Amino acid sequence: MLFFIFMVLCMxxxxxxxxxxxxxxxxxxxxxxEPSKSYMVMVRMSSLFMLLIAFTLAMA
Length: 60
Hints:
The longest helix has 23 residues, at about 35-60. It is elongated and about 45 Å long. The chain starts with a helix and ends with a helix. About 85% of the residues lie in helices and about 0% in strands. Helix 1 (about 1-15) crosses helix 2 and helix 1 packs antiparallel against helix 3 (about 35-60). It is mostly helical. It comes from Paenibacillus barcinonensis. This is DUF6199 domain-containing protein.
């Protein structure tokens, strides 16, 4: 069950990195700021990496 929750969160983070930024930082600034492009790339790359690891472990 925890595996599926982790997978769903990684997929949401991969598809909608701005949503994750808003949950972590956006509510503090009340919409006056946007995430940088480098932050968006970093979040997507780390989510993809974690998904690959999770799929590899699931297949083992």
